[in-house]
Design brief:
The chain is mainly beta and 124 residues long. It is built from no helices and eleven strands.
Length: 124
């Protein structure tokens, strides 16, 4: 079992930056991918970003490219999401995702472990 905890959310103004962190207590395997999803009120959970075990490959949803950066520190079992140029439409509950097996990273059903989420609110 892997326990996942996010932190770093908050209330900011449009154009500001935030850095989210995700700490995983335990490992689902020798190597595993990690990522971020978000869910706004009344909307489905959507893919934000993904990073491979080595960190050499990262993937982003189109609306986040150029603004968000995902990174990880395997020695600390920690992952980060640096969010710049935030917009009101980025307001959502952001979830950390840990992948133990296969499946397309952009599908929520491919995620094996979720955190409880950290709220990001961007005011205009």
């Amino acid at each position: 079992q892997v326990h996942v905890v996010e932190s770093g959310g908050g209330v900011v103004q449009a154009g500001d930056s935030l850095r989210l962190s995700c700490a995983a207590d335990g490992r689902p395997g020798a190597t595993y991918g990690m990522g971020w999803f978000r869910q706004a009120p009344g909307k489905e959970r959507e893919f934000v970003a993904y990073i491979t075990w080595s960190g050499s490959n990262t993937y982003y949803a189109d609306s986040m490219k150029g603004r968000f950066t995902i990174a990880r520190e395997n020695m600390k079992n920690t992952m980060y999401l640096q969010m710049n140029s935030l917009k009101p439409e980025d307001t959502a509950l952001y979830y950390c995702a840990v992948y133990a097996g296969g499946g397309a990273y952009y599908y929520a059903r491919s995620v094996d472990y979720w955190g409880q989420g950290t709220q990001v609110t961007v005011s205009s």
